[in-house]
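Hey L., structure's done. Input below.
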Amino acid sequence: MTTTATPHGELRDFYEDPAVPVASGAARSIRQARLLAAALGPAGAGARTVLDIGCGDGTAAATAAPFLAGHRLVGVDWSQDALRRAHARLPSAVRGELSGGGLPLRTGCADAVLFSEVIEHLVDPDAALDELRRVLRPGGHLMLSTPNLAAWYNRALLLAGVQPVFSEVSLRAIHGRPGKEVVGHLRLYTARALREFVTAAGFEVVRVHGAPFHGVPQPLRPLDRLACARPSLASILLLHARRT
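Output:
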């Protein structure tokens, strides 16, 4: 997970804790990788540079790698602990963050950016998208994924007066919502809000897709997969955009 600078040292300490999850479900990673592979085309037409910014332990990038064969995949994260694990899964992983001086990458160096389950952790998502736009070449692809505040079950939970899944009120414990893991979400988006936000940052949204959430209880997973047909109801939002 890549976060922007914050005056609160405890937030950085939270993300450096090896016990904090830094990987998401394989189903989301596979869907995202297939969308990116279709957008880039075969590597025979020319290898492209794909940055996985906020790569965490490299699990998502390693899952995507078979779909992106022939393309150059580089992981980027600020967490030293996450990078140690990512090096075991990725051919290339470098330390960098989206704040301060920005990423240690030249302008327009990337053909595509994977930005998976990161934006919900950011203190300053506006500055983050500015930096992603900088490192992408004109016409480059942004593949962003994030939990959906308006997921089908969250709508029901809110009606019942229950804190929505994915939202958190503390970095120390879960309060008022289902689930057991504290994952440090600071912001949540609906499909409409995400579209508007990314467009305002200088991208053209190609399409928003839905993906299932691996944490949904087993009996409800068929319903969760069905909800993917309507991204506004899906557990996870997969947004494909291009730099204008």
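The mean pLDDT is 90. The first helix runs from residue 9 to 16.

-- N.
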